[in-house]
Amino acid sequence: MDQLLQHLLNGLLLGATYSLLGIGLTLVFGLMNVVNFAHGEFYTFGAYAAFAALALASVNFFLAIPLAIVAGALAGAVCERVLLRPLRGQSIDTVMLVMIGLWIAMQNAELLGWGGVAKSVPTPFPTQPVVVGPVSVAPLRIFVFVVSGLLILGAHLLLSRTKLGRAMRATFQDRETAALMGVSIERIHTITFAFGAGLAAAAGALLGPVFLLYPSMGDLASLKAFSVVILGGLGNFGGAAAGGLVLGIAEELGAGYISSGYRDAVGFLMIVAVLLLRPSGLFARAERVG
Amino acid sequence: MKQGMRGLVVALIVAATLAAPASAQDAVKVGVIQPLSGSVAASGNYVRMGAEIGRDWINAKGGVLGRKVELLIEDNKSDPKEAATAAEKLIVRDKVPVIVGAWGSSMTLAAMPKLEEYGVPMVVETSSAATITKRGNPWVFRISPPSEMEALGLEKYTKDLGIRQADFLAVNTDWGRGAVGAFGDLIKRSGAKIGTAEFMEQAATDMNAQITKVKAGGGDTLFLTTSVEQITLVLKQAQEQRLVRKVITTGGSSSPTQLIKQAGPAAEGTYHIVFFLPWFPEAMPDGTLAKAFVDEWAKRGHPFEGLTEGFRGHDGVLTAVEAVRIAGKADPKAVREALWKVDIMGVNGPIKFEKDGPAGKESGQSKPSIFIVQVKDGKIALPAFAAKK
Asked: Is the pLDDT of residue B289 over 50?
């Protein structure tokens, strides 16, 4: 029983980070119809940005994270303006190829800039765990969990409650009509992509200190993000948030009770099952946007 | 202006193409395959730095066969597929007579068919999986100990370590799976109990599920076999879950100094099997050589924590070049024959190959020195039982 509780807690903490990774990807797909293969690279970018601010510029830990998010969003905005804007109206495959190119270019740039040796990010949190009954958890993990939850909630509110969110959803539902209603289409595209990149960078900045930083760290993050998005349904915001938690807990229980050697297989088997039985995702709704 | 630039570029290209064959003819090429990027990049880069020291020392003494030694270093990206590609590239394009590589067992195993296909020998400097020298690939010469040899090295200390029940946590590769088997046999022989054996993917970062499972088993010792990056994460996450175990890392790639730096208090008390003692170089079989290597490493500004990997690169290049010297020519077949005659002192100790694997197609296996150290008060120490023996 104690073991089960610890597994569930581990899965929840892990799942929240998967959710955060997934929502950025699903947003960009759902709203822009762009499959962002470079999503994991924005994650890496955010992690290194936080590291640079912390270790090189000695910025406070709690300031380094928002700085990394802003840097990630800016990088995303630049990519949108330079790479995606000229491709507007092109087929999704063309855009996909460009994003794969961006992924390779960014990863190699990180390798060139930071070298292949892993870096660890110092944090102000104590390493001693918080113990509650039979389970224990590191303070840093609690912080990451809370901030991830807040970011997901914030993203949801921005999309559903603000004028900007409405403009974003309107643009991608019907571009022409939205333009006629006075929405600046180009601006919305840039903001959406920057938003998705910023969320990935946030995940990187938060998880960098939990794990280690190395240039190929984004590959695993991308893989998990895509899994979450497929699980939750492409473009489904709530689905991605829930899908992350489901994936995290499934992996954790699979590793704990079936076999740790097949930990990733458990997650992928679940995805195969979902694709077979509910091809539009576990939490599919009629509408794809938002 | 534009014309002038073009002229300059053409001149440069001509100069480069003219210069290249000349230097290539002069130098004896040694191929090196290491993980310079990807999940185990730290280790691969340290081995590369050690290999460069080996090259520079040899060249400072006049090289080999009156020629300079040149290293052609390829990145296998911590990926077995890339290791095979790198081997093929070195053999076919660069025509190297001998290769040093390829760090991980799965990477080495992936490169091995290429050695047999083209007939080029490889000095294996790090890989621990037993299968490497058991597969009947006569082009493989290993200077690192297989896990079985490590387990034998640890055998005399099992009583002192007081192991009653051991669990295993290993990377899900040929190395990790091989180590679980080898150390499992050791535990069985010593009469202790075996708990669970858990595995993790090479790139995995969250090992909490495995740790929770190990914790539930109630053993007293945890054998940990993976790269320093994952050891760091496991130790940190084990601390978060209050897992109290005697941790013993195997494979010699734990870089205890880096662990102290990156895992901090979580590394306290852990034991590490290593094949080089940069903290006490005088305790090595050739203390003077070991000391010189440590000094040279520091002089180059390489991080101290890389030394437990770096010596492998030095010893690998030393072995490869010694074989070229004995062969008298940089020809792969002659170098393979010569590798059987190598008898030289490396940083780790004497290097001399014995036959291993199926008769008629034996691989070479050297008998390296094996040590165990412990992290004590944030420093590396020889455990009391090892110091007195």
From this structure: yes
Which three-class secondary structure string do you get for chain B?
CHHHHHHHHHHHHHHHHHHHHHHHHHCEEEEEEECCCCCCHHHHHHHHHHHHHHHHHHHHCCCECCECEEEEEEECCCCHHHHHHHHHHHHHHCCCCCEEECCCHHHHHHHHHHHHHHCCCEEECCCCCCHHHHCCCCCEEECCCCHHHHHHHHHCCHHHHCCCEEEEEEECCHHHHHHHHHHHHHHHHHCCEEEEEEEECCCCCCCHHHHHHHHHHCCCEEEEECCHHHHHHHHHHHHHCCCCCEEEECCCCCCHHHHHHHHHHHHCCCEEEECCCCCCHHHCCCHHHHHHHHHHHHHCCCCHHHHHHHHHHHHHHHHHHHHHHHHCCCCHHHHHHHHCCCEEECCCCEEECEEECCCCCCEEECCCCCEEEEEECCEEECCHHHHHC
Half-sphere exposure of A255 (CA within 13 A, CB side): 32
For residue B24, pLDDT beyond 50: no
Span B326-351, pLDDT tens digits:
999 999 999 999 999 999 999 999 99
For A245-267, what is the mean pLDDT? 88
Note the pLDDT of residue A233. 84
Predicted local confidence at residue A258, as pLDDT: 87
Tens of pLDDT along B28-50? Answer: 999 999 998 877 888 999 999 99
State the greatest distance between any 2 C-alpha atoms of chain B, in Å, as a whole number. 82
**DSSP codes joined into one string, A171-210:** HHH-HHHHHHTT--HHHHHHHHHHHHHHHHHHHHHHHTTT
Nearest to B210 among A11, A13, A255 (CB): A255
3-state secondary structure of A46: helix
Instruction: Give chain B's contact residues with A (Cβ, < 8 Å).
Output: 35-39, 41-42, 44-45, 77-78, 172, 198-201, 203-206, 208-210, 212-213, 215-216, 229, 232-233, 236, 239-242, 261-262, 264-266
CB pairs under 8 A between A and B: 111
Q: State chain B's mean pLDDT as an integer.
A: 91
Nearest CB among B41, B212, B265 relative to A10 is that of B212
Q: Crossing angle for the helix pair A39-51 and A217-232, nearest 10 degrees?
A: 130
Using CA atoms of B124, B128, B131, B133 in order, give the dihedral in degrees to the nearest 10: 40
Here the tokens at position B11 are 């001149």
Contacts of B42 in chain A (CB under 8 A): 116-118
Give the per-residue pLDDT at B355.
95
Q: What is the pLDDT of residues B62-100, one digit of tens each?
A: 999 999 999 999 999 889 999 999 999 999 999 999 999
For residue A9, pLDDT over 80 is answered with yes
Task: Give alpha helix (H) positions in chain A.
Answer: 2-32, 39-51, 61-79, 92-114, 139-161, 163-173, 175-180, 185-207, 217-232, 237-253, 263-277
* Partner residue opposite A3 with nearest CB, options B198, B216, B239: B216
Helix axes B256-263, B228-240, angle to 10 degrees: 40
Q: How far apart are CA B358 and CA B379, in angstroms?
A: 44
Rounded to two decimals, the ipTM of the complex is 0.84
Instruction: Find, in chain B, the residue whose alpha carbon is nearest to that of A253.
Output: B209
> Do A214 and B198 count as a contact with CB atoms less than 8 A apart?
no
Using DSSP, state whether A236 is helix, strand or coil: coil
Q: Determine the average pLDDT of the residues in A13-17.
A: 92
